[in-house]
Amino acid sequence: MVQEFHKVGVVGLGAMGAGITEVFARAGFEVTGVEIDDTALDGGRARVAASLSKAVDKGKLTGHEQTAIEDRITFGTDRGALADADFVVEAVPERLDIKRHVFTDLDRICPPGTILATNTSSLAVTEIAALTSRPGKVVGLHFFNPAPVMKLVEVVGTVISEPGTVELAAEVAKRIGKTPVVAGDRAGFVANALLVPYINDAIGLYEHRIASREEIDTAMTAAAGVPMGPLTLADLVGLDVCLAVLDVLWAEFRAPRYVAAPLLRRMVAAGRLGRKSGRGFYDHTREDVAEDL
Ligand code: 3HC
């Protein structure tokens, strides 16, 4: 069945949506990427172009391949362009009110057979599915940052998933070169339920001055062989995203390990969100590392 999939839609072209668009286009799908306005659209287009150009610079892609990939992507601000999409991935900000608009629109615009996938990391897929008249065809498709690089895609089914929907989404994930892991709709799914409390613990160590941020990061890269230490990773993921995941874990399970470190909450309140805002635990506006917090 997945062989009949040709046209994919991606709604939201931030860091995740742009990466997802690139991944689908690289795998040979025709992709329509939709943003809310021209400014956001320009940003999304630039993200995809920069990522592909980097791959060309590194010799991993030829200029010809880059052009072919870009030719498979149509950018626009009109969700109506998704009327003939077979499969749509939503990657808009993690707010239910925003997702509600998107899913209500998609449900109206797309044919009844279209699978609607959400890249949510902190909202319940079931709640999003229930916003539509096709809850059985709504599935979680959770990519990891940076989407073009990370192999894992969590495929999240719900109690109202139609038979075959999860399997189909997992096949799509394989078709785009990812490793699907099927998970139930539970706060944090699998990876974030393990990863984000670990990041939170690292923030707690830093907050209590047990070690410097560099020492904490080095401890884990050197001890566990991870490519990034937890504070560097928090900056990559986004501190707001980390906090949102912890808050849903806490809301769902009320376990002490899910209580967000006070410093994390304060940094989000201060707008220090990590790479996307230029500053998190590290300063991303400068090549050299800034003073400690
Ligand atoms: N787009 C495309 N390719 C990229 C990229 C991007 N944004 N960023 C890096 N790459 C590629 C590079 O081109 C390079 O490819 P090559 O080895 O074939 O030349 C490769 O990835 C390694 O990149 P770099 O050499 O530039 O830098 P690093 O070796 O430091 O790797 C990293 C960067 C891939 C980000 C690596 O540090 C890493 O894997 N970090 C961990 C990331 C992680 O754990 N992500 C999951 C976060 S959790 C999440 O997203 C879930 C959410 O819901 C919270």
From TrEMBL:
Ranges for domain 3-hydroxyacyl-CoA dehydrogenase NAD binding: 7-185
Instruction: From the Swiss-Prot or TrEMBL record, give the protein name.
Output: 3-hydroxybutyryl-CoA dehydrogenase
UniProt keywords, alphabetically: Oxidoreductase
Q: Which family does it belong to?
A: Belongs to the 3-hydroxyacyl-CoA dehydrogenase family.
Which pathway does the UniProt entry assign to this protein? Lipid metabolism; butanoate metabolism
Domain 3-hydroxyacyl-CoA dehydrogenase C-terminal: start-end pairs: 188-283
